[in-house]
Amino acid sequence: MDRFERTNAQFEAALAECRSIFSSKLHDYRASWRILRPSSLTDQLFIKAKRIRQLELTGETLVGEGIRPEFVALVNYGIVGLIQLERGFVDTVDISAEEALQLYDHYAHEALELMKRKNHDYNEAWRDMRVSSYTDLILTKIERIKEIENLGGATLVSEGIDANLMDIINYSVFGLIKL
Fold it and tell me: Could you give the percent of the chain with pLDDT greater than 70?
């Protein structure tokens, strides 16, 4: 297995872990996230990434969970963000667990395919990065999303919210692999 195949397999395994948790939460809560407006979803991403950064800086947790579950949450909320971009938000849950998982799989596959293209072009550079750099890049992407939201999407040259969400997903998966 060459290094790119190894990365692809590790990426797929991390996505499978995230999907399993997403599926379990669908059972417990249904697709309650369909109610989240874009700004609320961005804030949810923000608090997860800030918690990772705080844990990286202090090494202390009072709730007993470490960094790994937060990276999983970033992957899952990133995919939820892509679904919400496509579907918009609603006042009541309007999709079944099966439909939510189909949408999840669609965007997880898109993230995998994007990672493959970028990983080829960047020649596995992510492997030489620190996990803390992923955290900082994720926080930067979230700030960009906030600004795009504040601008009502009227950017001049920047990538859209979807591209930033894809990067958050991919950096989070890299964090899961490295941990």
Answer: 100
For 6-21, what is each residue's pLDDT tens digit?
Answer: 999 999 999 999 999 9
Question: Minimal CA–CA distance to 149: which of 159, 137, 161?
Answer: 161
The answer to whether residues 115 and 40 touch, using CB atoms and an 8 Å cutoff, is: no
Element (H, E) at 118: helix 97-122
CA gap 136, 36 in Å, rounded: 24
The C-alpha atoms of residue 94 and residue 175 are separated, in whole angstroms, by: 32
Find the Cα–Cα–Cα–Cα dihedral 112, 113, 119, 120, rounded to 10°: 150
Residue 144, CA atoms < 13 Å, CB-side half-sphere:
19
